[in-house]
Amino acid sequence: MSPGLSHAHSIMKALGDLLADFCTFNDLIIGGTIFPHKTIHKTTWTSPDGKTENQIDHFAISQKWRRSLLDVRVKRGADVASDHHLLIAKVRIKLKSFKDFSDRPHYKFNTQYLKSEEKKVLFNCEVKNDETLEQHCLTLQEIWKSTCTDVLGRKTKQHKQWLSAETWAKIQEQKELKEKINQCQNEEQKANLRTQYGAVNKSVRTNARDDKKRFLHEMTVDAEKAAEQRDMKRLYDITRTLAGRNTNTNKPVKDKQGKIITSDVGQKDRWAEHF
């Protein structure tokens, strides 16, 4: 190992030598080796039995941008049902876009919870019981905001809309087990927690698969009703939701004069000429 570098382990295997040679040849810096952290914040892989840990996932950046790399470390709390841990690199970028959010909120509410009857009843009761509802439109807006914050909570990221409340409860249980595994020091207890984690993860996958099938069935039934009622807008929205956002990654190949080449042979010749 190179002197002065910070590694999780003192032994580098053959693949590690190949990676180091590749980075040296291409003038790259391995970010995980230059920032001092605890070993648990550098090891990126744990064996299924929990006895072996290695640093096998890396972040490489050009030597030119070395000063832009601020930190590289592992986030062990990220739960993705994998034996690999999430590797995070913090990079400083001088130029960034500016968006003015002063006239609109910075967050959204978890309106998907209104599908639950319990949440719906609680939400309606909170709104109806507020005596200031009829005072002013601004007061009404504050009531809705406070009620949404208390009952629904703020939406931090885009959730899969077909997941049921039961599945989300299982996902939360899985996250809690992941946190317990990371904090547990006893190997026997950790093995027991891993067994529980595997069972919950299997249940999450099964529930999510069933939820998606149910969601697709409901959407297709709704699309049939929209077609019968000649509601084209609703039918288009359902079709777009089911199709997802597909982007065409095939870009046209052009010759030196800027004309598009349509034949396969011409495109292959142009690529060969380019490289």
UniProtKB/TrEMBL annotation:
Protein name: Endonuclease/exonuclease/phosphatase domain-containing protein
Gene3D superfamilies in UniProt: Endonuclease/exonuclease/phosphatase
Organism: Biomphalaria glabrata
